[in-house]
Amino acid sequence: MRSLLFVPADGGSKLDKAMASGADGVIVDLEDSIAPEGKLAGRKSAAGFLRQARLANGRPRLLVRVNAIATGLIDADLDAVVAAQPDAIMLPKAEGGASIIHADAKLAACEALAGLPEGSIKILAIATETAAALFRAGTYGGASARLIGLTWGAEDLSADLGAETNRDADGRFLDPYRLARALCLAGAAAAGVPALDTVTPDFRNAALLRREAQEARRDGFVGKMAIHPAQVPIINEVFTPSPEEIARARAVVAAFDANPGKGALAVGGVMHDRPHLARAQRLLAHAASAEKSL
Ligand code: COA
Ligand code: MG
């Protein structure tokens, strides 16, 4: 998944626009973009949307961001949406593997009540939204087969830290958020799941979005979340390997295939060893799966 577009559950026509945006995933939000008094209507709208949207051909993945475990709202969220069969829930304010095990158990109960196979609904976790979460970022491995990825957030974290801002005057993330970003990346790799970069809220600033997407890809993120449809094509472009990159990766794999048992080789006049092979294989795997829709 290269791009995941947020849309508020009460978004009306925005829900249909999100489906047509070209995003690889659509995240219907029941959390921060829905006021407390709107949760009930939001759940109904989300379930109605999912029932229709999941029937579409070549559709994006469908996710629902539920409310955090500590809010006590998550059970009513799951009761309302699980039967409508989202592909995954997004779990905000996750605090390590224990949160995933907790959400897994809740999902299992809802799946049983809805007559769905256990484990059919996956979990994408936001792993850096509280100070405590940062210290548990390394505990996601083995928590649940439902876990399909980690992402990170800077807005709630800055509130939890008591910070005045999370970016400097040039729009670059300050140290605590760079740490959170790195912990998301390392936590995901340690758990064997992909990492997705956080949103760029300044949605009219295409240059900032492109820079953040490029830096994210450079550092190992496989995609990035969006809050506006105009962000989707830029994210998709940045996270889609170019034909030249694919050709280079194929050449590396072919060189190792042609020289079984060799640890280091020259490809294009440059030394390549095992990490280079792994990187090339990873790029080809992404190229094959990036645009896969359901
Ligand atoms: N999904 C689908 N469609 C969207 C969209 C989104 N996230 N954001 C905007 N659009 C649509 C608008 O409805 C509008 O459609 P129209 O041209 O038919 O009227 C079009 O794209 C252009 O929108 P624009 O006028 O530029 O922005 P806006 O003022 O309508 O909306 C936001 C701005 C920030 C309110 C909106 O982008 C949004 O709700 N984003 C998601 C917020 C969210 O989910 N936050 C939680 C996660 S951090
Ligand atoms: Mg939030």
Please explain how this structure is put together:
The chain has 294 residues and is an alpha/beta fold. 44% of the residues lie in helices and 15% in strands. It has 11 helices and 10 strands. Strands 1-2-3-4-5-6-7-8 form an 8-stranded parallel barrel, surrounded by 6 helices. Helix 2 (39-53) packs parallel to helix 3 and helix 8 packs parallel to helix 9. It is globular. The model has no long low-confidence stretch (mean pLDDT 96).
Summarize this structure as a short list of keywords or feature phrases:
294 residues; 8-stranded parallel β-barrel; 44% helix; binds magnesium ion; alpha/beta; binds coenzyme A; two-stranded antiparallel ribbon; globular; 11 helices; single chain
* Mean of all residue-level pLDDT scores: 96
Give the total of beta strands: 10
The helix content, as a percent range, equals 40-55%
Small molecules bound in the structure, each named once: coenzyme A, magnesium ion
Question: End-to-end distance, in Å?
Answer: 12 Å
In terms of DSSP E residues, the strand content is 5-15%
Total count of helical runs of at least 4 residues: 11
The biggest beta sheet is recorded as:
8 strands, parallel, barrel
Helix and strand content put the structural class at alpha/beta
